[in-house]
Amino acid sequence: MSILVLENIHTYYGEIHALRGVSLSVEEGEIVTLIGGNGAGKSTTLNTISGLLQPRRGSIRLYNEDLSNFKAHEIVAKGVVQVPEGRRVFGRLTVAENLEMGAFTRPLRSEIAQSLEQVFTLFPRLKEREGQLAGTLSGGEQQMLAMGRALMAKPKVLLLDEPSMGLAPVLVDSIFDTIRKLHALGTTILLVEQNARMALQVADRGYVLQTGEIILTDKAAALRENESVQKAYLGVL
Amino acid sequence: MRKNSLGRLTITDVVMFAVGLGLAGVIVAGSAATLSSGKYTLAQWQDLFIFGLAQGSIYALIALGYTLVYGVLRMINFAHSEVFMSGPYTAYFFARYMFNIGFLQAYPVAGLLIVSAISMLTSMAIALTVERIAYRPLRKAPRLVPLITAIGASFFLQYTFRGLYGSGIDRYPELAILKGSISVLGVRVLVTQALVIVAAAVFMGLLYAFVMLSKTGKAMRAVSEDKETAQLMGIDVDRIITTTFALGGALAGAAGVLYALIFGQVQFYMGFVPGIKAFTAAVLGGIGNVPGAMVGGLFLGVFESVGPSLFLDGLGIPAPNQLKDAIAFTMLVFVLIFRPSGILGERLATKKA
Ligand SMILES: Nc1ncnc2c1ncn2[C@@H]1O[C@H](COP(=O)(O)OP(=O)(O)OP(=O)(O)O)[C@@H](O)[C@H]1O
Ligand SMILES: [Mg+2]
Fold first, then answer.
1. What value of ipTM does the predicted structure carry?
2. What is the pTM of this model?
3. Nearest CB to B222 within list A72, A90, A153
4. Alpha-carbon gap: B342 to the closest alpha carbon of chain A (Å)
């Protein structure tokens, strides 16, 4: 069954019509990727799902519940958790405090401690840096922290906005390894990427977004073979 | 601006440097002359210092309100002076009543606690009301707009309280247990001043622990850095802003009672000068920075208490104490020119506003 369904979403920035009728769905346990060039509306889509932006038309449903009347912080409590573009860790909070903020909506200390264990198993580096200010971490470490912080909320759907952005190739590989591990653990993921090649390798399905519209959707393997996708996003001539 | 290479010094830089140097020269010369004249005894210096500490503790508590609100909203809550005034002025009537029925004399400690609680709750309520009515609807407006509303709210509150409580000066009842002085490590300290310093220290310690250790305190720091991401963590930003105003208000109410203990009186415009001094202290320490507000407050209190006698007396300036406000604001101007980020606020400049 679909966990998350967007139907005909229109989002505006003032007069700018950024999303022009986006519809997509994410099934339990899937990795779905949303690819597209600069300014296509990928971040706008995620921010609309997260409730930071209000769509002017269309509906967003989580397990068939309409999300349009919930505020951003309430949507997190419902299990839709975003790792924003550019990591956005709290630089003047320590690594441990950042992780604690990730678990902000969860009441039970024992469950939070359990999630912390899992995050440290996934990212042992974060355990070594527990007391360090997040602003002093390297870019790769900050990305790990941003992901770990989101996992602390125990997401039902994890929204990742360009997790590989600005990272060295080795780190990109390790981030995608982590995404595979999360998938293996059963996490449902909506992955936004400009690195379409990598994204289509980990994903089950994909959507191609262009100037605010979904122009194509298919199984990830099929998109990899699609000629126009290859030309526009995979750098194949 | 001053980070340019040496060859690119502007006239302004040179003039500013000369002025700064001149001022430092005046301070050193004045201090040397005062000290060599031997006009003041050690005990007098100690008195000035302790009074400065007590006054500075009060500034620090008020400054925390400015700095906390600036931290989460990036705005100066100019109505904070009136938040400070509303508490002790309202509590005054309860104090007067408890004095008239003899309760305050019979149970001074309980009485003081009640007065403090009323003052803190009143200031908190006023701070929350101002936030809800004057600031929240304008959260997305250009930054000048809430600034203007803040000034409007400040006048509104002043004149509302004048209408409610009258325009005269009301004297707090005096308590026998607060008379006289005690000796701390051989230094004579008035009981009121000792109480003010200790109480302020306790409040500051509690606030610091709250901001650093509690979940809400951490969320306040997260909101102060990045509201949008804080929302993505499930933090209710409006609730955190409310909490911030409540804390700032309660501290101002506590500061108000301490102020009434030292000066013994309340009136509707009593908030103006301490409010501006505390704002100076917050800027001095680095606005948005919690320890900075505490350090800035204490520093300003001591500086304006000891400073006039120390720097100006030796220069032959008569009645230097009357110049203490001028000294405080001169210092504000120099801080803004030479170190706009304040004593502890080095990271403020790089922080996105
Ligand atoms: N705050 C804003 N105000 C006005 N327009 C905006 C704003 N944010 C985004 N836009 C516009 O909306 C469109 C979609 O932007 P969005 O950030 O969603 O793109 P994106 O696909 O995430 O791009 P990128 O890969 O560069 O992150 C762009 O045309 C952009 O200029
Ligand atoms: Mg984007």
1. 0.93
2. 0.89
3. A90
4. 18
